[in-house]
Every structure is written in C-alpha cells, then in structure tokens.
TrEMBL record:
<feature type="domain" description="F-box associated beta-propeller type 1">
    <location>
        <begin position="20"/>
        <end position="109"/>
    </location>
</feature>
<dbReference type="Pfam" id="PF07734">
    <property type="entry name" value="FBA_1"/>
</dbReference>
<dbReference type="InterPro" id="IPR006527">
    <property type="entry name" value="F-box-assoc_dom_typ1"/>
</dbReference>
<protein>
    <recommendedName>
        <fullName>F-box associated beta-propeller type 1 domain-containing protein</fullName>
    </recommendedName>
</protein>
C-alpha cells in the first residue's frame, strides 16, 4: 500500500506498558495503517518491535530496533513515508510504512531543550 496525498495522524502513548501507537490516513484512497511500536527492552536498553494493522488484520514484521533506553515523548509525526517518534534523549525512532524498516536518527539538542 503506497500512501500519497494528504495525511492526518494521531497517537496514543501508554507509559506503563511502553506501548506507542501511530495512525496514518490517506484521505485520497481512504486507506489507513496503524503502527504499534512496543518497547520490550530493559531499563538500560530499548528494544522496539512493531505491529501493523492494514485494514483487515495485524502483522508483525521482523523489524526490531535496539538502542540505549529512552522514552518517546509525544505522539508520532508522519513525514516522507515514515512515522517519527521523538525520544526524551533527543533522538528519533523512524518507521517507514512502505519498507517496514525502522531506524534511529541521533540528534544532539542543547541541554534543557528536550
């Protein structure tokens, strides 16, 4: 499913279970995907796994992302085909909806900004 056109997004964060949900809607084709990012890591290491709902069933791609522990702060933002979660260390978890691959984007912000 290729997403084109105008999009909207929303997200739900459940801090107790370390679950993070992003919704992307293609208003042109009236299709959507829900991406459920689950942190199954420890206090010292985040290990993100992903589940995708594409309109009729949930799938679990093999994609995982392991990095130093940090908590996503806000609802995800959709940009250029990917959902992006800003983490409290300033880095960004990016999940591409077309390729279903995740990556960590390291960013250095001035202290106190994030």
């Amino acid at each position: 499913m290729r997403f084109t056109g105008v999009f909207s997004h929303t997200g739900v964060v459940n801090r107790g279970n370390k679950k993070h949900i992003g919704l992307v809607v293609d208003r042109t084709t009236k299709s959507f995907k829900i991406v459920h990012m689950v942190d199954v890591g420890t206090d010292y290491e985040s290990k993100y796994k992903f589940e995708i709902y594409g309109g009729n069933s949930w799938r679990r791609p093999k994609t995982t992302l392991t990095c130093l522990s940090s908590f996503p702060l806000k609802t995800p933002v959709y940009l250029d085909g990917s959902l992006h979660w800003l983490r409290n260390d300033g880095s960004i978890v990016s999940f591409n909806l077309e390729t279903e691959h995740a990556r960590l984007i390291p960013i250095s912000f001035p202290r106190g900004l994030v």
